[in-house]
Amino acid sequence: MPEITFITLAGEAVKAHVPLGMTLMRGAIEAGIDDIRAECGGVASCGTCKIIVDDADQGRLPPASILEGSMLEDE
């Protein structure tokens, strides 16, 4: 199970084990991070819960899905 380090808006590092297949948003919520903006409630319909992935870790993630990519096009 991958260990993820989330950095909160306050700059606190929170480490959590996130099962394969679980979204990072769900993993963050289950780790007690409550400062994630998600206007749709986390159902992947608005794109407000974006995360920033460290450049060194970009290659460790699968490519964005079509839905994810369409929400990132405005960036």
Task: Give the tags.
single chain; 75 residues; alpha+beta; 19% helix; globular; Beta-grasp_dom_sf
Q: Radius of gyration, Cα only, in angstroms?
A: 12 Å
- The second-level CATH architecture is Roll
CATH class: Alpha Beta
Low-confidence stretches: none
* Secondary-structure element string: EEHH
Structural class: alpha+beta
Q: Quote the beta fraction.
A: 5-15%
Q: How many strands, what sense, and barrel or not for the largest sheet? A: 2 strands, antiparallel
Anisotropy-based shape: globular
* Side-by-side strand order of the widest sheet: 1-2
Could you tell me the number of beta strands? 2
Output the number of helix runs.
Answer: 2
* Domains, number: 1
The name of the CATH superfamily reads: Beta-grasp domain
CATH topology term: Ubiquitin-like (UB roll)
- Separation of the first and last Cα atoms: 30 Å
Helix content: 10-25%
Give the mean pLDDT. Answer: 86
Organism: Sphingobium fontiphilum
GO molecular function, one term: iron-sulfur cluster binding
InterPro entries: 2Fe-2S_ferredoxin-like_sf, 2Fe-2S_ferredoxin-type, Beta-grasp_dom_sf
Domain 2Fe-2S ferredoxin-type: 2-75
